[in-house]
Design a protein that fits this description.
There is one protein chain. This protein has 305 residues and is of the alpha/beta class. It has a single domain, classed as TIM Barrel (Alpha-Beta Barrel). The chain contains eight helices and 16 strands. The strands form four sheets. The chain has an eight-stranded parallel barrel with strand order 3-4-7-8-9-10-15-16, surrounded by six helices. The chain has a four-stranded antiparallel beta sheet with strand order 5-6-14-11, with no helix packed on it. A hairpin with a 4-residue loop joins strand 12 and strand 13. Helix 2 runs parallel beside helix 3, helix 3 packs parallel to helix 4 and helix 4 crosses helix 5.
Length: 305
């Protein structure tokens, strides 16, 4: 039986629902020796800023049970170097989503403007970063600030815009509705959970930055819950992120309402993880007699309220 794996995420046609998560896949070419990048839905490149960033000093990655901590600090080459060096190196046929980051709304918008006219298929706006003008609060934690960010980036962009939401909030559905109301084409969630771990030998934090983001299998149930809540609150499509290691994991996100998924931390231990997930998802659908992956979206059966 042949399975139709095609989906449409906010106006971006994907050959299958599996993308790679920003910050876990470099700029794409780092993984080209391991598999044909055109065989997955697409890649989300490292978050881009106006100027290059060196990120936080080490230690900035640490392993924990069922997951990973990171405080990379959004190290990247900057948007101009991405356009001039990284993007042209990717083979034709690879769907590229650019992740956008800034310390204020104006810098977010400027990055979006500079990406206009490139082969980038969509922008993913990283709203899980501290806003320096709001005392360090994440953009995605304040509905008013988030609305301003979505409005500005949507106006500055020439391609579909997805907003990547933070899990460090009380009501994910409210923030999803804010994004939809301001013109976002899609959502991505979740980003990492803010956490702290301690080295008992040194009595210091395990990360030089003290706080870091938790990713990996440990956050999968939380990510499923937030994807389910967000997808029920809005009509725009959702991309599910959080602890995906297999096709079965990806299928859970589709059933909870996601149109697409992103594979992140698994890339660190298996450079073919995204392809394995894509093939596993197709195999799962075939085993269930599902001829189109879109038929799985939102298919979670719950007890009546």
């Amino acid at each position: 039986m042949s399975v139709d794996t095609r989906v449409n995420w906010g106006g971006v046609a994907l050959r299958n629902p599996v993308l790679t998560a920003s910050g876990t896949f470099g700029y794409g070419m780092e993984f080209a020796p391991f598999f044909d990048l055109t065989r997955i839905g697409g890649i989300v490149a490292k978050s881009l800023t106006l100027e290059p960033r060196i990120g936080h000093p080490p230690a900035r990655i640490a392993e924990v049970p069922s997951g990973m901590l990171n405080a990379i600090g959004l190290e990247n080459v900057g948007v101009d170097a991405f356009l001039n060096e990284k993007l042209p190196a990717l083979p034709e046929g690879v769907t590229v989503v650019a992740s956008v980051f800034g310390t204020d709304i104006e810098s977010y918008a400027e990055v979006c403007k500079r990406l206009a006219g490139s082969r980038v298929a969509a922008l993913e706006v990283n709203a899980s970063c501290p806003h320096v003008k709001s005392g360090g609060m994440e953009f995605g934690q304040n509905p008013r600030v988030l609305a301003e960010l979505v409005r500005a980036t949507r106006q500055a962009a020439s391609v579909p815009v997805a907003i990547k939401l933070s899990p460090n909030v009380t009501d994910i559905a409210e923030l999803a509705r804010v994004c939809e109301g301001e013109g976002a084409d899609a959502l991505s969630l979740i980003n990492t959970l803010q956490v702290l771990d301690v080295d008992l030998k040194t009595r210091r934090p395990r990360l030089r930055n003290t706080l870091g983001g938790l990713s990996g299998p440990a956050i999968l149930p939380l990510a499923l819950r937030m994807v389910w809540q967000a997808s029920r609150a809005v009509r725009i499509p959702v991309c599910g992120i959080g602890g995906i290691q297999s096709g079965e994991d990806a299928a859970k996100f589709l059933l909870c309402g996601a149109t697409a998924v992103q594979v992140g931390t698994a890339n660190y231990t298996n450079p073919r993880a995204a392809l394995d997930v894509a093939e596993g998802l197709e195999a799962f659908a075939e085993s269930q007699g599902v001829t189109r992956l879109t038929d799985l979206i939102g298919g979670l059966e719950t007890e009546p309220a």
